[in-house]
Amino acid sequence: MHGPTYMANPLACAAANASLDLFEAGDWLADVRRIEAGLTEGLDACRNAPGVVDVRVRGAIGVVEFNRPVDAGTLCARFVDEGVWIRPMGKVVYLTPPFVVSDDELECLTGAIRRVIA
Q1: Which residues contact residue 89 at a Cβ distance below 8 angstroms, ignoring those fewer than 6 apart?
Q2: 117, 115, 112, 113: which is closest to 51 by C-alpha?
Q3: What's the CA gap between 31 and 39, in Å, rounded?
Q4: Which of 34, 93, 98, 112 is most open to solvent, judged by the fewest CB atoms within 10 Å of its CB?
Q5: 27-117 has which CATH code?
Q6: Residue 64 in contact with residue 93, Cβ under 8 Å?
């Protein structure tokens, strides 16, 4: 039994079905490819930042991994100062932007990561 999931709630099921309809109707694969290219280009310079052990992108997910856990509170505050909300977790700073993110918004996010972790 999955108590906290949909539990046959009519409104939740309707929202889930509408979301699936959007996937069927849209060209979301093209959006994912565009986002993947933007993340790859935008995060590549992070490879040389202090403490970074890996930068990886898969589809619409971009990750900068450090050799030890990051100070999430300090990084969050610095990201907010850059005008973005990015929440690090453990040893990673990651982005999972929505498929409707614009190229300018994506550059704003990746640029903030580059500036903060440099």
Answers
A1: 72
A2: 117
A3: 12
A4: 98
A5: 3.90.1150.10
A6: yes
